[in-house]
Predict the 3D structure of the following.
Amino acid sequence: MDDYRKGWALRYLREAMDEVKIAKKDSKAFNLIFDAVRKAQAAIYYSLGEPTFIDSIVQEVIEKSLPAENPVLRCLIEIEKTIKRLEQMENEPQGSHISDLAIKESDRVVSIALKIVGLLISED
């Protein structure tokens, strides 16, 4: 991984972790959850290669319901689907159940991103 992509991956990952922490502490900042999961996803995409190319592959597989036999691609598809579910929650009234679920899911996505980016950076 080149320094440019490594730098962006680490930046997005740091920002995602910070935004989840802020959203957990302040219910008024709940919408940061949605930015955080997109940034975690961007961190993964930057660590894997060209983000727009990877996103287009993920979107194509989802839109055309193609089989995802590669485990990394399956993981990226599940993250995208989780993000879509979270974005749907954004428009619902924010009860404690929805807030807890969104925070739990965002924690999971950020944790996965942390592991993937960490693994790919360590192989560098």
Summary: The chain has one domain: 3-122. Residues 78 and 109 are 10 Å apart (CA to CA). The chain has a mean pLDDT of 90. The first helix runs from residue 3 to 25.
